[in-house]
Amino acid sequence: MSLALRAARVDDVDAMLALINGYAREDRMLERSREFLVEHLRDFFVAVHGEQLLGCCALAVLTADLAEVRSLAVVPVASGRGVGKALVDACVSEARRLGLRRVFALTLVPAFFEKCGFTLVSLGRLPEKSTAECPVCPKRFACDEQAMLLHLDGSKPLPLAPEEPVGYTRLVSGQEPS
């Protein structure tokens, strides 16, 4: 399968919306609205085979130091074929181009991000996310995502310590997500 990566375009929005919200209905990622995708279109990369959208992913810059890989979704028939990794690599390359120092992702699949070079850490080490966006997230009291961090200078983040809380629910309430 030939794969092309490019910046998302307006004509990709419907396919991105269907893909992302299909996974959201399975509680595997956050739902996105058409308005959100259009407003953040410049953050998104897409993987295509001809005219068929195979996947999408966004790089959201949170601070001058930190960006988040978010809304990573790959069509099921392309799963396991390197599409997700190619999209994450595109986001990491863009973060480097922008001069950022760190990139993180919140995920239900930490092993995938480990293969991409990320390290499991506590969300508490990312206050730019946990204090700004997590409190208004619809899953804030049932967050089962794990924080994965990549330092762009090649150094390794300190891995999650046994006593550190993993995600937002554990961080704020000290409880397991419901």
Superfamily (CATH H level) name of the largest domain: Gcn5-related N-acetyltransferase (GNAT)
Distance between termini?
A: 40 Å
As a percent range, the share of strand residues is 15-25%
The CATH topology of the largest domain is given as: Aminopeptidase
Q: Which runs of at least 5 residues are low in confidence (pLDDT < 50)? A: none
Biggest β-sheet: count, sense, barrel?
Answer: 7 strands, mixed
* Series of secondary-structure elements, N-terminal to C-terminal: EHHEEEHEHEHEH
Tally the helices: what do you get? Answer: 6
Total tally of structural domains: 2
Secondary-structure-based class equals alpha+beta
Rg (C-alpha, Å)? 16 Å
Please give the share of residues in helix: 25-40%
Work out the number of β strands: 7
Query: How would you state the average pLDDT, rounded?
Result: 88
Shape, principal axes of CA atoms:
globular
Order of the strands making up the biggest sheet: 1-2-3-4-5-7-6
